[in-house]
Structures are given as structure tokens and as C-alpha cells.
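Here is one chain, start to finish.
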Amino acid sequence: MDILLRVTPTKAFITGVAFPQGVSTLFRTVDDGATWQSLHNPCSGSLTATLASLDGDTVWIVCGVEPSAGNESKQVFVSTSGGQSWSLKASVGIGDASSGGLPSAGYVSTLALTSSSTGFLALSRYGLAAGTGTGSTWQELGSWDGAGGSFRGLWFATRRTGGQLLAMACTAPSTGGRPGSSSQRGRLEGWCRTGPLGGGTARGL
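Its structure:
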């Protein structure tokens, strides 16, 4: 899985995990792609990884290791130096007690941030989790998806209402079955979380 993340007009990251070897790479540019710097990827040995940043300085990365029967060992790392160094914030192994509430259920899919200290993690075959405290504390927001589906993406739309910045995080669930089948047509719903940036309530669409 390869990710190109552009966070400012001049700053961007490329990360990749080669399956099944688990060889991870991470590159950063600060000059609009003219040059690239190779950085240490803390997800080395992982099978999946997702990266997010709002400013190119504070960067979150979530690693997925050893998937099994809808569960996966996970690690959350955060850098405040643009990926130069990393700190382990939370982790969980299959069947182990979670560090900071990170769920073992679901496979690492997509990570999105609403601030340097708050993020949302979409988990395929499970649901959504919210991380606060710069990734050290996690709360499960619901297991909407289930074993038959997969959250394909997570994105945010923002708007100002009365001077307050609001956010809407949406996931797009899908199910198995052939395209156009009744099982797929019946699952075109989305899941959104709306409210002040970094908070809010859940509602289905």
C-alpha cells in the first residue's frame, strides 16, 4: 500500500509497505518535490500503514501487523519533527489488553486528522475509532461495518457557522457480492460524524 500525502504547497510525504515482505519506506519533500529525503519508517515489518498530517511537522502513522479473522495488531506513532523521529503512542496485539484503548478489531484502512492532537482511524471489517492526546488515547465510535464490509475511505469537510469551524468525517462502507447485487444496493449508506472540529456526535446517512 503506497500513500502520497501533500500537506502544504511545498511539503509532502510518500510512504509504502511492500506485501508480503513488510519492507517499509518513507520519503519527505519540503521543496515541492524538487528533492526527497529518506526517513525512518516506524512501520517497518508491518503489512499496512496509513499516514496523516496537517502541517508537515506533526505526523501520525498507524501500522497494521498480523491480521487474523477480522483482528489486527496495531501501533500508533507520532512525530513532531516532520518524520525525523517517532514516539510510540498506543499499541494493541490480537488478544492483548489495549494500550490507550486502541481496538484490535478491524484492519488499518485510513487515518485523518482534525488537529495535531486529534485523529480518526477507519478500520475495515469493523468501524471507526477516535484518537486524542496526540494519539495516546482512543475511543471506539462504532462497529458499523461488520465482517462483510470494508471502509474504503475517510475524509473531512469543514465549514464555518457563527465563527465556529465544524467538521464532518465520512466513511464509505461497501459489502461483498457482485456489483449491482441486492446486497450492495442495500448498503449505499454512509456514516458521518459532525460537530465542532475534534468532537461531535454520530449519525447515519
